[in-house]
Amino acid sequence: MVLDKQGQIDLYTTMLTIRRFEERVAAEFYAGNIFGFIHSYIGQEAIAAGVCKHLSKEDRIVSHHRGHGHCIAKGADMRKMMAEIYGKKTGYCKGKGGSMHIADFSIGMLGADGIVGAGLPIAAGAAMAAQLEGTGKIAAVFFGDGACQEGEFHEALNLAAIWRLPLLFVCENNHYAVNAPVSYSLAAKEITKMPEAYHIPNRAIHGNDVEAVHQAADEAVSMLRRGEGPYFLECETYRWHKHFLSDWLEDLRPEEEIEAWAKKCPVAAFEAKLLGQKVLSCSDIERINKEVLRQVEEAHEFAIESPYPQPQDALEDVYST
Amino acid sequence: MREITYEQAATEAIQEEFRRNPRTVHVSTDLPDDLRREFGADRIRVTPIAENSFVGASIGLAGSGFRTVANIRMATFGFVAMDQMMNHAAKITYMFGGQAKFPILYRMTVGAGISAAAEHSVSPYPMYMNAPGLKIILPATPYDAKGLFKTALRDNNPVVSFEHILLGGVKGEVPEHEYFVPFGQASIKREGTDLTVVALAKMVYDALEAAEEMAKEGMSLEVIDPRTLVPLDRETIIESVKKTGRLVVMDEACQTCGAAAEIIALVTADKAAFSRLKAAPARVCGLDVPVPFSPPMEKYAIPDKAKLMEAVRDVMRSAPPR
Questions:
Q1: pLDDT of B157-178, one tens digit each?
Q2: Closest residue on chain A to B57 (Cα)
Q3: pTM, two decimal places
Q4: Which residues of A touch B100 (CB under 8 A)?
Q5: How many other C-beta atoms can be found within 10 angstroms of the C-beta atom of residue B7?
Q6: Which one of A128, A192, B36, B57 has the minimum C-beta count within 10 Å?
Q7: SS3 B251
Q8: Out of B55, B65, B98, closest to residue A317 by CB
Q9: Which of A200, A164, A115 is nearest to B59 (CA)?
Q10: Which of A172, A94, A238, A300 is nearest to B99 (CA)?
Q11: CB contact under 8 A, A91 and B97
Q12: With contact defined as beta carbons under 8 Å apart, do A47 and A170 qualify?
């Protein structure tokens, strides 16, 4: 898929939407208005945007606890997302899941999973469903370098490989599992050596370059749709916030490293590129930003104005009818 | 009526439902030949020895509109998949606000009695009862195996079937016409007036034998098989105890925090049933030890007819609690 101007603008808008949404969530969290755990996606926006651009509603994705970006890129309604983050009845999960567990099955977002690596076997099941349906649909799973340390990661790689499942593994290598550097935690110094061992085609790319992500995902998704089995994409990136937003959690990452990666901001880099290519003008960018902020504000208002669930709503949805 | 084995009855239910609904798949580490021949390798998949992977894949399949039967085989292997079972299968309907249905039938064998030692002998359904979101069935007869499977395969929730390892080859009457055994409906296997025995899984057979023998001693035992633990047919148990005034629960699972404890608690917490009790209830359960290998120790560790009869006599002799 050649990225035309509109395609570039779409990618930029998606990234900016994720950024502004996450900025608002962080601001409200630190103002004491949001409870629980928020794992911010800021810094990693290019990956969700670049991959999901190739997916339709019929393709299914699974994400982990840092999942807001994947939801937005897959087309989720930010109002229902924000309401869920606020624990409101109008949220995607009626306030039963919160930030870590947003799902929208109607757009093929099968949920964010709070147990590191556990979404991988679930995504393999979604890919098996796609394979059985035989209509060229695929599944994609987003996870971090931390998940690569879990047994379920290896089980899912093996399953996808032997069954040739149309499953796109998207490893967002942000170099840390909470504060433990992946260079310490993982004996394999290159993550792609692991899918390699399972004979899964793979590629490592710079995950902050949205066009690089878009292009690599294009090739991968095309292979998947042709029924050529799974594909593994490692996207190197960095999260700007701590593991989760917190007043008490320590951030033990080196300051100079944090600063260096801040200079590799995926949104700013792409914005500069689009300005340079004259795809967008300064006033275009201002207009897009204004519109994105309006949508985020609208989502926030919706969340604030929505009612909390009744306490006894806790008894509903344990079982389906 | 024709007689077929428990395992044949279970397989028949799967076959009927797989014929009816093409969006069904079967995953297991072994090769179910009959199913594979009829439904093909695409739908009947042999998995790697990686329980978390296929217990989890069943969830993804369910979330994508497929119904899965996942045969985990021994319940001890089920422990390997506890992340997917407890963190996901059990919670996912609820955590996502009921926006999707997760129709999955997980099968596992339970029980001891074949000198398989602790890593191949366990009855862990009480643990699963503590995980809201799972339905739990415990078929004891070929009739119930088929009827409960038929119901499970139309249910829209994760259902866990615990099947006693010694029951697979047991033969019994199974109608050829289609039928369903509803969840939450206990079966009164034998009516009686002196004492209620609630027995689970294979223990149903031991309890019926005990009831037969004790009838000769002039004791009338009512034997109830709950058939499903979640949902549990509280009413039938409570009504029976109100009638007999005495209760013994027999279960092979370890005693501590078991299904037997739950059943006794629900009876004693029911004011009407409590007021009719003529003796303190008793339980005859597996000892709180890992199941040992050597036959004399294994036999000692799990309940049997003799232990039940001893407990029944003791309860019958007891003075009223007041």
A1: 999 999 999 999 999 999 999 9
A2: A125
A3: 0.96
A4: 103, 105, 110
A5: 15
A6: B36
A7: strand
A8: B98
A9: A115
A10: A94
A11: yes
A12: yes
CATH number, position A229: 3.40.50.970
CA B218 – CA B276 distance, rounded (Å): 21
| A320 inside domain | no
Q: How far apart are CA A271 and CA B128, in angstroms?
A: 52
Query: Parallel, antiparallel, or unpaired for β B67-74 and B104-110?
Result: parallel
Token pair recorded at residue A290:
């204004």
Which of A97, A110, A155 minimises the CB distance to B52? A155
Contacts of A217 (CB under 8 A, 6+ apart): A50, A51, A53, A54, A168, A170, A233
Q: Looking at this predicted complex, what is its ipTM?
A: 0.96
Q: Cβ–Cβ of B54/A123 closer than 8 Å?
A: no
By C-alpha distance, the chain A residue nearest B102 is A320
CB contact under 8 A, B60 and A127: yes
Alpha-helix residue ranges (DSSP H) falling in B49-193 = 51-63, 75-78, 82, 92-95, 125-129, 142-152
* Local structure of B268: helix, strand or coil: helix
Question: Rounded CA gap, B129 and B292, in Å?
Answer: 25
Q: How long, in residues, is chain B? A: 322
**Structural domain for A74, as ranges:** 5-303
| Any A CB within 8 A of B41 CB | no
Closest in B62, B87, B156 to A321, CB measured: B156
The answer to whether residue A176 is domain-embedded is yes
Report yes or no: B88 and A122 within 8 Å, Cβ to Cβ. Answer: yes
B187-314 sits in which CATH class? alpha beta
In a domain, A316, yes or no: no
Q: What is the mean pLDDT of each run of 10 residues along chain A (321 residues)?
A: 92 98 98 97 98 98 97 98 98 98 98 96 98 97 97 98 98 96 94 98 98 98 97 98 95 96 97 98 98 98 98 98 94
Number of domains in chain A: 1
Do the Cβ atoms of B54 and A121 come within 8 Å? Answer: yes
3-state DSSP call for residue B19? helix
Cβ atoms A101, B97 nearer than 8 A: no
Cβ atoms within 10 Å, residue A103: 27
Helices (H), chain A: 5-30, 45-52, 68-74, 78-85, 119-133, 151-162, 182-185, 193-197, 210-225, 255-262, 266-276, 282-305
Question: What CATH code would you report for B3-173?
Answer: 3.40.50.970
Residue A178 lies in a domain: yes
CA distances from residue B85 to A127, B88, B138, B158, B233 in whole angstroms, order as listed = 19, 6, 18, 9, 24
| Any A CB within 8 A of B96 CB | yes
Specify whether B88 is catalytic: no
Structure tokens at B142: 């070929």
Q: Which of B25, B84, B96 to mutate to probe the A interface, most A CBs <10 Å?
A: B96
d(CA B131, CA B229): 12
- Candidate list B26, B88, B120, B164, residue with the active-site label: B120
